[in-house]
Amino acid sequence: MNAAVARTVVVTGGAQGIGEEIARVFVAGGAAVVVLDLVDPARPLPGVRYVLGDVSDRESVRQAFASVEAHEGRLDVLVNNAGIQRVGLTDQLDPDLWRAVVGTHLDGSFLCSAAAIPMLRRQAGAPSSRSAPWRRSSASRAGPPTHRQRRACSRSPG
Known about the structure:
By secondary structure, the protein is an alpha/beta fold.
């Protein structure tokens, strides 16, 4: 039996790339999938409901999860996938671009997890606030060392 059967899944950042593929896999497994993204998909996936929203904005997240509650009536899985990349050297990077990255990666994961947890708790065997929804925040820590490595390579003589 497929684990996705009869499940409702929210995938943030699912209009393209990895998020789109995650949504595709859940749909193929029989899940009701809701994608929360800033942009409309280029080619909407059959069986996916798209909600436009900004994961870094508290009110936008609240409205998106209220929509999930109203239309799907439940939530079983949250995939905090939304992410943006802004390339630049630290000394040349606009602080507003930096805030956009932090807002999407960290604030977005926090806000979506906080909105999802009450819905997840209503389902049998629901996770606590210390479980899977927080795995994304540890991945975001990889950003600064990677940037430092690029910076070092760009300044090295050879």
